[in-house]
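New to this. Explain these tokens.
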Amino acid sequence: MKKRLSYIAALAALSVLPFKASAQQLQSAYFMDAYAYGHQLNPAHDFNSKAYVSIPIIGNLNAGINGNLGVDNLLYPRNGQLVTYLHPSISVEEALGNFHNNNKIQMDFTTSIFSFGIHKWKGFNTLEVNLRMNGGFNAPYDMFELTKDLQNRNYNLSAFGANAQAYAEVAVGHSREVYKGIRAGAKLKFLVGAGRVDAQFTELRLDLQDENRWMATANATVNAHVKGLTWGEMKVEEYENGGTYETIDFDNVDIDGAKGIAGVGMALDLGAEADFGKLDLVPNLKAGIAIRDLGFLKWKEGISACNAGQPFVFEGFQDIKVQDGPGTDIEDQTDDLTDRLTDLYRLEDAGVVSGRNTGLGTTLAISAEYALPMYDKLTFGFTSTSRIQKRYGWNEERLYVTVKPMRKIEASVNAGVGTFGPSWGWAVNLGYFFLGMDHMLGKLTKQGIPVRSNADFRLGLVIPFGGAPKKR
């Protein structure tokens, strides 16, 4: 826990947060009629059995990571070992050519404690209890350039950012056909927050003073809303011109054992779908639109750390230690860089921070599906998904081929492109069981870590019962 909070605060290049952000469900199953959790993609979705109930915990398990910053950007194989991009055997051109203007990582984890759906009251009704954890990380290109290719010039390292949060949700949904060929749906969510950490580094400039010294200007704030969390014992540092000051030692951050609710909130999902064939417009064509997680979490008071905002002399990147040859100690390099970034921001205890409202990261999705006239069990689809969340926002477009040979047996393959690059996914639904991936794992390191930061795994067990619902 201490190490993870240290990485969140320092935003070291070689660290990732322990959990994207509102969790994205199994996009690859978007056009599957037998996918029980289609209402999480669009609350207007119907389900092709009268009812279902999930198996606790493993009824809907989602875990994923997305980003344009992967392991292969940071670690390189040399003589049978992995070395960081800082290693002298990695050229400046090779290392820096793999970074972007904004380098992002987002992760998510969601599991369903309970989920139930039933056709009743002239529509489809759902009740869910879910646990969700998410977070995001953003680092500018100049940070990697500074650490790899230190030059006598000015640097602007603004636009750092990181957040992580965990909460439970209880959701109640209803959808129905409001007109021949048009369905509408809504879902109301009640949220209980377990904790949130948000680091905003709005300004960081290093202005060259002479060959070995920079005048640093930094503005940073870290707010933590976690019951019982404390910064712990401060670390005493010396000013360059004499005197001392206290800064947070993130190795001392701890939780004193207190338990309780850190926040509460509400959210709303809205959706609509149109069957243009039933509307006597275009046979075999359907379209939909949905907006998800439109809401907030109101966090109770927490603790804060901030930078004093006063310029100071910084000499911390002149002598980053990188061992030569194979066997480089990656953990030591990471700790060294983390400590230097922590020193650069000089975060001090800012005391108690008042409660605040935060958004969840709203997602907008549009879709279209066309069934072959000669074999309507084979369909082609398109989705466009956009996350609206400031610097952690993203978008993705996907093309699908879905086959539905039987009511409870379906399969889909798809290809996508977006903020985090190209990907392809798949999903299968076999009655009680579904499995899929929106981003294939690809190549793994010897330690089992995906080389690229776009990978997810989603599975679930549900019990559909009652046969097909009556057509209205």
